[in-house]
């Protein structure tokens, strides 16, 4: 009887501890969700009045106190998709090498250590690197190409990590079955492993795209400018970008108070752009997973 009472007390303690920790986890999750909605609501209430067809489709005018942000939208999209075009093949190729070909050696350990450290480097350091290497050494100047390359280097750790985790999630039985049917290792990777891991790879890549679209420090040294009257027609043209435009209006403009609603409106467009990219990642992953199960 004493043993059963002791077990009952321990069970109650475990149940109480579990309930307490689950409650703390729920509170933490609720705080994150509330913080997100608070930020979005704050931006919407202050920036919605600036949103109009003219704001989205016209050039800035009168020292950027009037007009729209079309060059910023085009520049941000160009920089983000340019970074993805550069980082995606390099990142996925690196993940395939690390997961499918590389063994457990010193070289692989050094590569993984470098990738982990690259993920922790502040974005302003990437900007200074892009300025020194792409703009100065390679003589690209402040241009769309230099900005996209800088953002691509910054996005590599995210894409490599997401792609490698997606490749690890593919069951080994898929590889064994393919090899057993006479396929080579390369054919197995291209026709079995990568298609099965594609939802996770694309999800990570689009999330990296959303991060690149919202960065300011890497592009303020390499690709973005205070103002340009024209849309980019070449990869060597300077561009305007949404995050840098917000920074300029809020800190370096000549009419900071007069452009407050434009600052919040630009921030609202940037948030909508990033959230749209994340939503596309979720929908694309869901569709690809359903297709792979058929």
TrEMBL record:
Domain ABC transmembrane type-1: 73-281
Gene3D superfamilies reported in the protein's UniProt record: MetI-like (1.10.3720.10)
Keywords: Cell membrane, Membrane, Transmembrane, Transmembrane helix, Transport
Subcellular location: Cell membrane
GO cellular-component term (any): plasma membrane
Main location: membrane
Signal peptide range in chain numbering: none
A Gene Ontology BP annotation from the UniProt entry: phosphate ion transmembrane transport
Bilayer disposition of the protein: Multi-pass membrane protein
A Pfam family the protein falls into: BPD_transp_1
GO molecular-function terms, A-Z: phosphate transmembrane transporter activity
Annotated InterPro entries: MetI-like (IPR000515), MetI-like_sf (IPR035906), Phosphate_PstA (IPR005672)
Transmembrane segment boundaries: 20-48, 68-98, 110-134, 140-167, 188-210, 264-284
UniProt keyword Membrane present: yes
UniProt similarity note: Belongs to the binding-protein-dependent transport system permease family. CysTW subfamily.
Name assigned to this protein: Phosphate transport system permease protein PstA
Organism: Desulfoluna butyratoxydans
């Amino acid at each position: 009887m004493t043993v059963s009472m002791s077990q009952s007390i321990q069970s109650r303690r475990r149940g109480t501890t579990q309930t307490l920790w689950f409650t703390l986890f729920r509170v933490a999750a609720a705080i994150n969700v509330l913080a997100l909605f608070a930020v979005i609501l704050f931006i919407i209430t202050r920036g919605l009045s600036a949103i109009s067809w003219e704001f989205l489709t016209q050039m800035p005018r009168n020292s950027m106190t009037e007009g729209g942000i079309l060059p910023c939208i085009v520049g941000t999209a160009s920089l983000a998709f340019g970074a993805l075009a550069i980082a995606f093949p390099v990142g996925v190729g690196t993940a395939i090498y690390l997961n499918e070909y590389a063994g457990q050696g010193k070289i692989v350990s050094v590569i993984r250590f470098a990738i982990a450290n690259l993920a922790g480097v502040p974005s302003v350091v990437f900007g200074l690197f892009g300025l020194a290497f792409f703009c100065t050494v390679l003589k690209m100047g402040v241009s769309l190409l230099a900005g996209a390359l800088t953002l691509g280097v910054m996005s590599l750790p995210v894409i490599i990590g997401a792609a490698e985790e997606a490749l690890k999630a593919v069951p080994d039985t898929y590889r064994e079955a393919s090899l057993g049917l006479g396929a080579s290792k390369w054919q197995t990777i291209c026709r079995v492993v990568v298609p099965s891991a594609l939802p996770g790879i694309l999800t990570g890549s689009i999330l990296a795209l959303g991060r690149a679209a919202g960065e300011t420090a890497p592009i303020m040294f390499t690709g973005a400018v205070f103002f340009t009257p024209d849309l980019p027609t070449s990869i060597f043209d300077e561009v305007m970008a949404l995050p840098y435009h917000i920074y300029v209006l809020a800190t370096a403009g000549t009419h900071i108070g007069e452009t407050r609603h434009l600052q919040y409106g630009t921030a609202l467009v940037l948030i909508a752009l990033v959230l749209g990219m994340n939503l596309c990642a979720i929908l694309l992953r869901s569709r690809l997973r359903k297709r792979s199960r058929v």
